[in-house]
Write a structure and sequence with these properties.
The chain is α/β, with parallel strands linked by helices. It has six helices and 16 strands. The longest helix is centred in the C-terminal third of the chain and has 14 residues. It binds flavin-adenine dinucleotide and FE2/S2 (inorganic) cluster. Flavin-adenine dinucleotide binds next to strand 4, strand 6 and helix 1.
Length: 248
């Protein structure tokens, strides 16, 4: 996609959904990212100790803004959570490739893997499964409304267990298994989903979360060895890969 921009832009709105999840809406010109693509975000006027641009997936767009759904993980995301409307932020993107289209896919998210698959469901369609450690804090927020099946590690949802356990249960119950599944979440979750879907002969495409410095294929800090023995950058060759390129 050739519409990449590097914009010094302004925060339009920040909305807390819980003590750690928030929506950050940034003013933009019209850009058309596809579900799975991401931006590198960098706060322009940060004056503390070293802070790097961070990759954040697109959650939503309008013709005047782009919205990111972020969970505070460390210093940079905490800094983003404190930004106020009008503050300057540099955004570079859309970067990376995007999820393939399947007919009636299942979409599987773990934690901060939710934004790109939720965006996919709103842009196209699909049945969305999402796993969280708990949804107590998110119960009254709109972000749960687009999710069809939720799993949690505590008793705050109807299904206690991992999202992969939930997908496995639904695959056993269904008479119409999906032609393809796309997923984003922690590495361990994606690997265990890959192992499950191998048994069911269902293609899986995963969006990998790697540590990134440049986000554009220059530093090779995010490179990994594929099952075919070649090195690929998560940022510029991905972040979306067929799972059989990542695991045997
Ligand atoms: C393509 C891509 C899209 C992403 N989209 C989103 C998004 O939409 N919303 C969102 O909240 N986050 C997203 N992330 C994750 C986000 O970039 C990291 O959480 C971010 O680096 C945290 O920065 P920080 O400085 O706040 O924390 P850091 O100080 O960088 O890290 C805090 C903790 O998280 C761990 N960590 C950081 N990054 C990763 C990672 N990628 N994988 C595993 N562990 C990690 C660190 O080891 C540390 O324990 C995405 C990551 C990638 C690669
Ligand atoms: S982060 Fe630099 S090559 Fe991927």
């Amino acid at each position: 996609m050739k519409n990449r921009v590097s914009l010094l832009s302004r925060v339009v709105r920040k909305t807390f959904l819980s003590s750690s999840w928030f929506l950050l809406e940034i003013q933009t010109t019209e850009i058309c990212p596809a579900p799975g693509q991401f931006f590198m975000l960098f706060p322009e006027n940060y004056s503390g100790s070293a802070i790097l641009p961070r990759p954040i997936s697109v959650y939503n767009t309008t013709d005047k803004s782009i919205t990111f759904l972020i969970q505070v993980a460390g210093n940079t995301t905490r800094y983003f959570s404190k930004m106020l409307p009008g503050e300057l932020i540099r955004i570079t993107g859309p970067l990376g490739n995007y999820f393939p289209r399947f007919e009636n896919p299942w979409l599987v998210a773990g934690g901060v893997g939710l934004p790109p698959v939720d965006f996919y469901k709103r842009r196209y369609s699909g049945t969305l499964f999402a796993g969280f450690s708990s949804v107590n804090e998110l119960k009254h927020s709109d972000i749960l409304q687009n999710i069809d099946y939720i799993s949690t590690m505590d008793s705050s949802s109807d299904f206690k267990g991992t999202v992969v356990d939930l997908v496995e249960m639904k695959l056993i119950e269904t008479t119409t298994p999906p032609c393809g599944i796309i997923a984003c979440g922690p590495h361990g979750m994606l690997h265990s989903l890959h192992r499950l879907l191998l048994k069911h002969h269902i293609p899986l495409h995963v969006s990998l979360e790697g540590q990134m410095a440049c986000g554009t294929g220059v530093c090779h800090g995010c490179a990994f060895k594929t099952t075919l023995g070649k090195y690929k950058n998560i940022c510029s060759n991905g972040p979306v890969f067929p799972s059989n390129e990542v695991w045997k």
